[in-house]
Amino acid sequence: MRFLDGIPATRKEELLKQLKAVWTHDSTAIEGNTLTLGDTMFVLGYGLTVKGKPLKDQIDVQNHANAVDAVMDLVMRGRLMEEDVFTLHRIVINEQSRDIYKPVGAYKREDNGTYWPDENGRSVYHAYLPSDKVPEAMKAWLDEFNGFYRAEATEDEAIDAYARTHVGFTSIHPFYDGNGRLARLLSNLPILFAGYPPIVIPVESRQDYLQALWDYERGNTDLSAFKSFVRTCWQTTLDLVAEARQGPLLVRR
Q1: For the packed helices 55-74 and 179-186, what is the interaxial angle rounded to 10 degrees?
Q2: Exposure winner among 60, 105, 145, 175, fewest CB in 10 A?
Q3: CA angle 55, 252, 202 (to 5 degrees)
Q4: Would you identify the CATH topology of the domain 2-246?
């Protein structure tokens, strides 16, 4: 990955650890995980549990970190297959299916949706794509996704790829659970392939992020605001890389 070029080996290793920790913490925290960034670094660094924190949250953190490793392994292939998506889902969820309609490593088999407040503060139900339409929609999504692999992509093209693949995936909502985490993982593949560090959505921006996805779901297909939001979010990892080029990384807690 080109963003690592010129960084000394020991500093490169520390950079990748911090990128994985920040990415894992923020993505799982968006879904309600209670671990702090310091907790996350402790779990990933030592493999130990954090006293007073739910075991499930600590397992989710480890699962996501394993999924980041899997994404890094996929980068240079330059093509994403359906089975890759299923494999990542199994890593992120990492549990046995207890419901045939909510399988792990396979598309959902029952319809689902979510509630979101409208402009008047009322809770509105939004149905995701029906389960029987998911396989066909995901085939089209994969075809579009693979068209975004460009080794010489500019930053604007990379952000466009991230935004379009992200909202495309979440609007399909192909799995019963884990869709947000998967979208934030998968949409970084073209970014990494083009030689850039990953885009991480900070948990502090959770409300703006979810609102942007909700707006898209309601028919606002103008992605300019979302792209601007994504560019702002990207600054965290860009700063980490710049810091690694200048000297030892500060420990983030």
Answers
A1: 30
A2: 105
A3: 70
A4: Fic-like fold (1.10.3290)
User: Where is 17: in which H helix or E strand?
Assistant: helix 9-30
Give the angle 19-24-25 at the CA atoms, nearest 5°.
Answer: 105
CA 181 to CA 236: how far, in whole Å?
A: 18
Distances (CA, A) of 75 to 191, 205, 215: 9, 27, 30
CA pair distance 11, 246, nearest whole angstrom: 10
CA distance 220 to 222: 6
Q: Is 123 helix (H, G, I), strand (E, B) or coil?
A: strand
Give the model confidence (pLDDT) of 198-251 as tens digits.
999 999 999 999 999 988 888 888 999 999 999 999 999 999 999 888 877 765
> Which H or E run includes 102?
none
Amino acid at 158: A
CA–CA separation, 164 and 41 (whole Å): 31
User: Is the Cα dihedral 86, 87, 92, 98 positive or negative?
Assistant: positive
